[in-house]
Prior knowledge:
This protein is of the alpha/beta class. The chain has 2 domains: 13-25 and 294-388, Aspartate Aminotransferase, domain 1, CATH 3.90.1150; 38-290, Type I PLP-dependent aspartate aminotransferase-like (Major domain) (Aspartate Aminotransferase, domain 2, 3-Layer(aba) Sandwich). Helix content is 34%, strand content 13%. Helix 6 (172-182) links the parallel strand 5 (154-160) and strand 6. Helix 1 runs antiparallel to helix 8 (278-292) and helix 2 (61-73) packs parallel to helix 8. The longest helix has 21 residues, at 294-314. 46% of the residues are buried. It binds pyridoxal-5'-phosphate. Pyridoxal-5'-phosphate is lined by residues 86-88, 113, 115, 160, 164, 189, 191-192, 212, 224. Pyridoxal-5'-phosphate binds next to helix 3.
Amino acid sequence: MTPISPSTLPSQRDLFDIPDEVAYLNCAYMGPLMHAVIEAGEQGVRAKGRPWEIAARDFFSEGERARELFARLIGADAEGVALVPSASYGLSCAARNLRLAPNHRVVVLAEQFPSNVYVWREAVRTSGASLVTLPRPADDDWSRAVLAAIDERTAVVAVPHCHWTDGGLLDLTRVGARCREVGAALVVDLTQSAGALQFEVSAVQPDFVACAGYKWLLGPYSMGFLWVAPRHRDGQPIEYNWSARAGAEDFARLVDYRDEYRPGARRFDVGENANFVLVPMLNTALEQILDWGVAAIEATLSARNTRIAERAADLGFKALPGAVRAGHFLGLRFPDGDPPDGLAARLAAEQVYVSVRGSSIRVTPHLYNTDADVDRFFGVLAKLASSHS
Length: 389
Ligand SMILES: Cc1ncc(COP(=O)(O)O)c(C=O)c1O
């Protein structure tokens, strides 16, 4: 993987619609939209008001651009990118194309996000295979735990790049190599990392990569990606929409039904993927992310989170050590077990926005944050702690 660039970026707050008094530290919940992304969406809505100006080629051009942009973000080829509405849709395509037998095992992490769990529960239920849920390792080293769990019985390893509760990091390059050794498929959910944590398809060599677009890709809701390795590109989609078929560009001949699909991973595209509102919005966001550069975003967020973790340590909170945590992601564990009831709501009442996940406060800033946001977070936290004691 390319080394992290040491250069960091200044706050990009002006590009976003976030009032000064709002300390939004919750990108892992939902990325806010930039002004330019909102404008792209408004243009899309207006375009649909004048359908006589929408030509057949407009059904495909923005989608092709989206494939290219996402491919650049993860070091992949655009031909392998399918347009999907959610991570769970992409993961369902993966499960549909990975055959399981009763002696097979599917490996997932404890408390993994449900979109990458339910699909495997169903796959093992219908095939007789087993789901292996790895417990959270005492030393928080998920990479070691996953590597130790993979053996000849493993058919699928279905994991994120970092855990969605606290940023616990997986070394996917090593996991990918181990999967290849035993002939297991690697299915990766990048929803909590793509755009903010460097990932290279050529280094990891996964089978499938799914990613929702509304968090770290700073895109709209209901639009995401699935990258499919060349060996699976002749697989079965989970639905049969006309626009995935060869010749779909010729609207006059759509009833010359075709068995062949459009090339690459386009057969996995969701129906009505030519979404005139959402796709241009996502493209606008991806262009800005590529312009900033994922390495620079990662370096900037890592530096900010390190400072937050140090300050939180003075109040008794514990974060995962840097070596086993994704730089862009932070979970602060409470000194004495579970967080007080309603903590996130009490912070929100002061316009400080974070999530509580399990026994951690999840703090996930992005480039729109400022030092003042972080000061507000600590100010309110200290106030709540003193009113509690
Ligand atoms: C790791 C992870 N994957 C996926 C999702 C969203 O999944 P879907 O697009 O299926 O709603 C989330 C949402 O929080 C997530 O944290």
